[in-house]
Fold each of these.
Amino acid sequence: MIAHLLTSFRLLLVVPVSVGLARPDVLPEVWLLICITVGISTDYFDGIIARLTETASPKGRLFDHSTDFLFVTGGLGGAALAGDISIALPILIGCAFTQYVLDSFWMHREKELRMSTLGRWNGILYFVPLVLISVSRLDLMDSSSHLWSTVILLVSYGLILSTIASIIDRAISPSQ
């Protein structure tokens, strides 16, 4: 029950984070970073709590992963609208997540999600551009915006490539 509350709280943060990344004038930079940090923290702790309380379930994992998907794609979609990253990343994440769910429940007729190692790491690393963008907006160091932009673009293009690799991996290894 507590794990679901944490996941639900992260779900409530999808809209403020997405809008805050799309429109920097709407949500102060510090609050954006706080919302992203809380989102990441709830993602980290919900699974731990579910396992400790022995309430982990396939439906709980689906709720958690779906919420993660909405959080990162909403945030990255907002970042793309602001021109911080390529729109290709949130679109590819949508394709990868759809493939993940369809492959698990429809193709293999499983009653739970079938994770892959690359997909798991991508899922974790999708939070990185959100953090980088929110920290870059704090203007902690004068004249560092070009450096932040470069790092954010490199990370996002790396994630585009790893997401494509994950999609291909899942497509050619259906028996994972």
Amino acid sequence: MRRSDREVKDRAEILDILSKCDVLRLGINTPDFPYVVPMNFGAEAEGEALTLWLHSASAGSKLGLLGEDSRAGFEADCSHKLVAGARACNYTMEYESVVGGGDIRVCGDSGEKRRGLKAIMRHYAPDGDFDFTDAELAGVCVLRLDVARITGKRFHK
């Protein structure tokens, strides 16, 4: 990382930043260029393992591309604040961000789908207690991204 003074190294702080983000941008490989799509997400940390859960339609470009290459990158950012300067080049932005990558796959069984959807709902509605019918589970695609690398970055003036 070029700006090591902005690097967040503590795993708990990185997870805290991720918990404050509303949208995760998923980057998928294509033969021609990266394909980036904003997604809702949930996260589960168990020991050193970090799993990101995403939901999707059951068909489309994203799933076709993931069938060709299961490696994916992601980015999430939050805590934005524009800091004005005396001149244009003195303007800056406060932020917190998380960037990483890993292997992503479609969840096949209803137990894993349920786990992923509950993680997503905990992210957006932490006080809710949600469950899903078999019909609801059959109607949605849940993606599981097993994070292999992750970094955090923060800038506050």
Amino acid sequence: MSLVVILFFAIGTLSELYLLTIVSGYISIINTLSLIMFTFLVGNIIGRSWGKEYFEKMQWHLKSRTIPGDEVLNGSVMALSGMFLVTPGVITDLLGILILFPMTRGIFTSITENLVKKKISNSDLYYFFKD
């Protein structure tokens, strides 16, 4: 793995732990653990319900031989929201909650769309890391 990737995950983990200790200092450890479990439950519910809904929409488009453009983008962004909410931490929970709201979901959808367009125009085979 690249050193940049290792540093990214190390800094992310340390910042999440630091913010969790700050939050637990304000609302107690029991309430912090309850909040972590609640966001895990919400992320799990979102992953199951929204994921199934967008998957069925994509299947309908593919069966009718139309392009499922928006369904793929919204489904991938909502799947990312579910993953963020399942992951324990303050930063990931805030990002997951921001993606849930339709007003801010458009920002994340446009970021994803621009990333995919850039990768396709550069004819890159890898979206994140090379093997």
Amino acid sequence: MTLVIVTVMPKKGVLDPQGQAVQGALSHMGFADIGDVRVGKRIELEINGHDPAAQADKMCQDLLANQLIEDYSVEVQG
């Protein structure tokens, strides 16, 4: 098994209401030095096969990321 980490984030320029809510909450808690906040997701996959990165990329294209509004990265950890 190979561990693959997929990170999915909203594309730059796409409204991120969850990030704005977190930014507002942090500001109200006294963390005034916070700039833009973006909230995404991290997906850990254990994949069998000879090319786990390609398999994870296909999974992202088909299901894990909405490519209209999200970017993703794939990291093979071993």
